[in-house]
Amino acid sequence: MEQLTTYLKGVRAEWTKISWPTTQQIIGQTIVVLAVVSVMTLILLVMDYSFHFIVNAITPHRS
């Protein structure tokens, strides 16, 4: 029981050291993440269509 008490006191001490981000920081970081995901999605979309076009151009078509 003493070990649990010591552990919980340590957790509480570390918890007070946490520096929580502000609302503005969270909003800014969220916008950055959404922008990066959108750009990467567009890049992958263009690559997918390009590869599809290339494969169709070099592959013989069957009737």
How does this model look, in words?
The chain has 63 residues and is an all-alpha fold. It has a domain at 21-63. Helices cover 79% and strands 0% of the residues. It has 2 helices and no strands. The longest helix has 36 residues, at 23-58. It is elongated and about 75 Å long.
Layout of SSEs?
Layout: H1 2-15, H2 23-58
- How many separate helices? 2
Helix-strand makeup class: mainly alpha
Radius of gyration: 26 Å
Report the principal-axis shape.
elongated
Could you spell the SSE succession in H and E letters?
HH
What distance separates the N and C termini? 78 Å
Short overview:
With 63 residues, the protein is an all-alpha fold. The chain contains two helices and no strands.
Which key phrases capture this entry?
single chain, mainly alpha, 63 residues
